[in-house]
Structures are given as C-alpha cells and as structure tokens.
Design a protein that fits this description.
The protein has 239 residues and is α/β, with parallel strands linked by helices. The chain has 11 helices and 8 strands. InterPro entries: Aldolase_TIM, OMPdecase, OMPdecase_AS, OMPdecase_bac, OMPdeCOase_dom, RibuloseP-bd_barrel.
C-alpha cells in the first residue's frame, strides 16, 4: 500500500463526505449551493453518475471541492484498468472498486501516476451475516473484511471501505497510513434506511474512521447546511 500518511484530512470538513444521491445534476448543484462552505467533500454514486453526474466531477473540482466517485468497479482486469485510466483525468479524489485482487491490481495500474486514490469496497454495509451467507460467502463478515483488507494492502490500494464495526480490525491489518472510509453513518435518531451495520458520526470518529459518508440525513433535511454542521460538531467532539 502506498504511504498515505499525508492523506489524512487537514481540514476537519474533509472527514465528512456528503452523498449526492440525487436524480440529476441540477439537483446536486442546488444541494451543494445550499450546504455552502459547511462541506468540502461530495460523493457521486450510480444514481447521479448515470444521470449525467460524471460531468459534475471537474465542475466541483474547479470550485475547490473534493469528489468521491463511488462506482465500485469490478470487471475483467483490462476493462477495469482502462476504465480507471479514463476516470483519472476527471479530477476526482477517490474512486471505489470492489476488493477482488485482480480488480484492485488493475485499478492501481490504471491510476498510474495520477493523484486519484483507489478505495476498495470490502463488504457492503447493507449486508448482514444472513445476506453474506445467501451470497455464498463461507467466512463471517468480520473475517471476510479483514481478508480483503489484507489483499488490498498487497495490491497497493490507498484505502478501504468498510463498516465502522470492522474499522479496528481493518486498521490492524492495513496500518495507520491507509484511509478508512465508512458509509452507513446515521446521526442519532435518523432512519437507518437500507443500511444494517450503522453507527453515529461520533461513534465512527471515535472508532478511528478517516472519512464518514452521510447522504439522506443531510440531503433530505429541511436545512441540510445545519445538519452538516451538527454532524461535523459531533465528530469534532471525538478528536
């Protein structure tokens, strides 16, 4: 794994990634404007990317904002490599791939010398043990996450996506230099939605998570800026 000690956020706002899980770019732009300078890091996933949201990446980057491109790439090696190479010029900060060895090695090759950081998704936070068994995984989730984190480290991946519940085990595997990014974060009192392994922002920060991803509790709020600021304050209390 590349030495990423310097990747740790210097601006506390960078620890929070706001998921722009919205229908189209105009809605995403409006949300970014409503949140204003309370946030510096935004996630673009399938829903927005496939509705024209990839064009937002250089636009947001030009505004000095960071973009987490959450596409979870997984295909034959050549396809992943060429896909990452094409995406590396957009200006995103993070790009996700699934944590399969061939996929991860291909993504690292495709990234080349660009500044794009490759983040490997271990087990989706919408999965519980029953879902994992149904998918054919023989290992318990905690062991599977640790195994994939080890393979990611060997492949030269910059960081890991995992549940906050697996964060300490992942840290033990990948060491202090790797980034840990955690979705499934819900402020106290929020609906967990389709997430099953969740924590509050404060709990996640206390667990040593580098970046937390929060979507609907912010974007569906009457005042998304105020919710963003409250989450940041909760996380700061754990520093």
């Amino acid at each position: 794994m590349r030495d990423s000690t310097s990747q740790s956020p210097t601006d506390p706002r960078d620890r929070l990634i706001v998921a722009l899980d919205l229908d189209e770019p105009a809605a995403a732009r409006a949300m970014v404007d409503r949140i204003g300078d309370a946030a510096t890091f935004y996630k673009i996933g399938y829903r927005l990317a496939y509705a024209g949201g990839l064009a937002l990446v250089p636009e947001l980057a030009a505004r000095g904002l960071k973009v987490f491109l959450d596409l979870k790439l997984h295909d034959i090696g050549n396809t992943v490599e060429e896909g990452v190479r094409a995406l590396s010029g957009l200006g995103a900060t993070f790009l996700t791939v699934h944590a399969y060895p061939q996929t991860m090695r291909a993504a690292v090759r495709g990234r080349g010398t660009s500044s794009l950081k490759i983040i490997a998704v271990t087990v989706l936070t919408s999965y519980d043990e029953g879902d994992a068994r149904e998918s054919g995984y023989a290992l318990p989730i905690s062991e599977l996450v640790a195994h994939r984190a080890f393979q990611a480290a060997e492949a030269g991946i910059d960081g890991i996506v995992c549940s906050a519940f697996e964060a300490q085990a992942v840290r033990n595997v990948v060491g202090p230099a790797s980034l840990i990014v955690t979705p499934g974060i819900r402020p106290a009192g929020s609906d967990s939605g389709d997430q099953k392994r969740v924590m509050t922002p404060g709990q996640a920060r206390a667990a040593g998570i580098d970046h937390v991803v929060v979507g609907r509790p912010i974007t569906a709020a009457a005042d998304p800026r105020a919710v963003t600021q409250a989450i940041l304050a909760e996380m700061a209390a754990q520093e």
